[in-house]
Amino acid sequence: MFKLIGSAIIMIAAILFGTKKYSDLFERKRILCIIRDGVISIQNNLRCTCMPLYECFLQGGEFFEKSALLMRDGILPTEAVLDAAHTLHSLKSADLAAIERFSAGLCCEDCQGQITNTMHFIEELDKNILDAANELNTRGKLVLKGCILSAAAVVILLV
Fold first, then answer.
1. Burial of 137 (0-12, 13-18, 19+ CB in 10 A)
2. What is the mean pLDDT of each run of 10 residues along the chain (159 residues)?
3. Where are the alpha helices (DSSP H) in the chain?
4. Whole-angstrom Cα distance, residue 26 to residue 103?
5. Spatial separation of the C-alpha atoms in residues 5 and 48, rounded to whole Å
6. How do residues 80-108 score in pLDDT, each as one tens digit?
7. What is the 8-class DSSP label of residue 136?
8. For residues 122 and 36, is the Cβ–Cβ distance under 8 A?
9. Rounded to an integer, what distance in angstroms lies between the CA atom of residue 130 and that of residue 62?
């Protein structure tokens, strides 16, 4: 009886662990897509109306709304974007480096410089999203299946 209960606990724990690792990889891809959508919105606002950055950020999605709130409190756009990025724990160092390069370009004074900055950032985000999708498809599935198979092997040894 105890072996069956122990086996069930091991299987459940392995499935939960694998699911957590898979969801962490999925979260990275989701956040990068949200940031990309926000940058496209900012770019469109800059192209059409040359809005100030604060107003563009307010309409740029959840990541840029955090930055806009920090800007409203008197923080520079460069620092506001970096502060918002460092609250996202599922991003890798390559993602944070791309965000840092984007935030450094926010000091451009003219609208065309901001548009160029967003174009470069979108290109970098596309590469990072592709990397995140590939990692999710390979490593994510491997972790999930590996946890289940490892738990099954332990269960077989217990029973």
1. exposed
2. 81 88 91 92 87 82 87 86 88 91 83 88 94 91 86 80
3. 2-49, 53-58, 62-72, 77-86, 93-104, 111-135, 141-158
4. 25
5. 63
6. 888 888 888 888 899 999 999 998 888 87
7. I
8. yes
9. 21
Three-state secondary structure call for residue 89: coil
C-alpha–C-alpha distance, residues 114 and 53, integer Å: 9
Give pLDDT, residue 123. 94
Crossing angle of the two packed helices 141-158 and 2-49, in degrees rounded to 10? 170
- SS3 label, residue 37: helix
Tokens coding 89: 């724990």
- The CA distance from 105 to 109, in Å, is 10
